[in-house]
């Protein structure tokens, strides 16, 4: 564990620009911890960051982006970005920048400790457990922690990472009132929301190296629908935060990437950090920030429109842990925003960071076949946002041509291919339902299980198909290939479900359908299933289906006694 420095007066110091504290994965597969200087010097040789949690990785990446934006004062436009992309030593100015602001990157500084408030204290000078900032130790859930029952001590490197994470993803709930915070009532501050990134369905673009990742997410100041003020600055170029919070509008990405949603102060000795004081900081309402925050998709909120009596109102579109990234690819690829006068506002807006990459490929700065990973990271909170229930971490590999603003063929076929998969999954769910009905057993369990199996079966083939979509000049033909693959995979799984349905389903029974009564058994359920696949996936052999196959899955109705 790195030990802190001591100056001539014996004061402890942990300089984040010089001491290793950021976990990274190298291109050769080995892991390491690097200082801020080393991260930028070696970015070309690093695969990516590796946080203690995926949410920590997202928070750290945003800090690195704020540093690059500020050190380079840009890029101002796409031409400036192109010069950085071509320059292998594009991060050279960062070293001098970090040296100039070195004092604000000292985790233990007495006057302006990094991302902390000097002298922060409660009225009774309480010091609390580090559980309050370490997100993998949920308060009140000791049976699920790897550090039962509390976090007694952290090294300075790990503590620095959790400080960054706390500003980004700290939970809501009642927090300690600190001296000087006017919001405190009887020593408490009532819920003011989660950390800023906790509101987001985080999205960023990964390249082959950390250098590429940083540049791909380095949005130019002249990007349409992204507002960046000239006064935009990260937290370390602003006056140190005092107790309490200030209500103000963000000035741009540097500000938002380092937004101080909390006030905290670490308690430490020479051996490490042993306690923390944590309170609320600068509040920020997530509503209608789509022109400021590029790392999330947005959804239109009609309840908020009704409440605020304005249209439109947008909120961040959060990730669902139950839905894999490939199934929601439409939110990443298709931008529903339209500039047509008098048109209805779009229900969804894709992330600004993907709009930026779309601009890069449309204007020819990236080759159409250049591969990236659209990475999604987010937190789901529970119990009035007082705990983190789940963390979402997924990705979709794709060629940037899918983001092209003028050539929408590839994106449209990629989204339509997910619809093909959904159709097959629904058909398999209906098959499982009908097999259960034929056997006179409950239907919901088999249906849910069949759908889960189907999505699991189709996920890997879809990801492979998507990554290779740019290899063809005819995405429509590639879509037809995909439909054939889906038909065959779903057909095999359907055969397995029928074989496992047992003698009761094979014998069957009389059920009521929209066409009257039917003797439903596994054979008829299979015919309905094959007909649904054929109709939905454009099979040429649909004419060869039996006459009674076009009835489709029968609705759930009262079952008659067998004849």
Architecture overview:
- It is a single chain.
- This protein is of the alpha+beta class.
- Among the domains are: 298-407, no CATH class; 411-551, Topoisomerase I, Chain A, domain 4 (Orthogonal Bundle), CATH 1.10.132.100.
- Helix content is 34%, strand content 15%.
- The chain is built from 15 helices and 17 strands.
- It has helices at residues 36-41, 54-72, 78-86, 92-100, 156-169, 210-216, 253-257, 302-308, 329-333, 352-362, 409-438, 444-467, 475-499, 502-507, 522-537, and strands spanning 5-6, 12-13, 22-26, 31-34, 46-49, 175-176, 188-189, 202-206, 262-269, 272-280, 298-300, 314-316, 348-349, 371-382, 387-399, 509-513, 516-520.
- The strands form seven sheets. A three-stranded antiparallel beta sheet has the order 4-3-5. The chain has a three-stranded antiparallel beta sheet with strand order 8-14-15. A three-stranded antiparallel beta sheet has the order 12-11-13, with no helix packed on it.
- Strand 16 (509-513) and strand 17 form a beta hairpin.
- Helix 2 crosses helix 5 (156-169) and helix 11 (409-438) runs antiparallel to helix 12.
- The radius of gyration is 27 Å and the shape is globular.
- Residues 542-551 and 553-563 have low confidence and may be disordered.
> Which residues form runs of ≥5 with pLDDT under 50?
542-551, 553-563
Percent of sequence in beta strands = 15-25%
Task: Count helical runs.
Answer: 15
Helix and strand composition category: alpha+beta
Strand order of the largest sheet: 4-3-5
Q: Based on the structure given, which CATH architecture of the domain at 411-551 is correct? A: Orthogonal Bundle
Task: Quickly name the level 1 CATH class of the domain at 411-551.
Answer: Mainly Alpha
Helix content: 25-40%
Mean pLDDT: 91
Radius of gyration: 27 Å
- Specify the overall morphology: globular
Q: Oligomeric status of the shown chains? A: single chain
Biggest sheet statistics: 3 strands, antiparallel
Report how far apart the termini are. Answer: 78 Å
What CATH calls the topology of the domain at 411-551 is: Topoisomerase I, Chain A, domain 4
The beta-strand count equals: 17
